[in-house]
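#struct-pred
JK: can someone run the complex with adenosine-5'-triphosphate? inputs below
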Amino acid sequence: MTKHIGIFGGTFNPVHNGHIASARFVQQHCALDEVRLMPCQLPPHRATPGVSGEQRAAMVQLAIAAYPQLKLERLELDKTGPSYTVDSLRLLREREPHSRLYFIIGMDSLCYFCSWKDWQSILQYAHLLVCQRPGYSAEQGDAPALLQHYGAANLAALQQVNCGRILLLNNPVINLSASGIRQQLQQGLACSDTLDPAVLNYIQSQQLYQA
Ligand code: ATP
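RT: done, structure tokens with the ligand placed:
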């Protein structure tokens, strides 16, 4: 039987409640067998000093522990050097030829999707599922043209084909960003309502994101 797999790429620096709520919403709403959070490698100049890929992955593990349908996808961390989404999806397709892939992004990412390496090929490997995010709309950037060409009216229409369609989701909007949370942590603010308690505990014990 075909497995339906959501892939949610990101820096997860750190993973926050907006990521987890979005991943859970997409998994349930689109009836996916699983959603994998896939932390990317960061080149040294983009990495937060003192926070490794392994630590970002450890935080993802802690945040998903209560949700069996959410998984960690280590593919990009296990390769050397930063990887492009298109290459990761190609590899996943090769590894799991009988699965259907759904790449999950926030609206912010859809607005500049055409600047991603070989974005047309991304659509040959996967569908795109787009979560609403405060501050970004489907009227901005690359979104209108992409939706005109590839937009699916609903989930049933998207599922008629293997890949290449874009679906906008009506997820509850959560006004959180990892950069905002890093700033709050640096200022010594609690962040107990924006981070999973186990993630917060890990951040404190490893002394991450300190000023
Ligand atoms: P930063 O503030 O550092 O840019 P971020 O919060 O956007 O970080 P990322 O790890 O870069 O987190 O995001 C991974 C993916 O999650 C992206 O596709 C992004 O659009 C999406 N995303 C992040 N936060 C939210 C949110 N609150 N609601 C919906 N999608 C989100």
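RT: quick notes.
Residues 10-13, 18-19, 22, 105-106, 108-109, 131, 133, 174, 176-179 surround adenosine-5'-triphosphate (CB under 6 Å).
The radius of gyration is 17 Å.
JK: thanks, will look after standup
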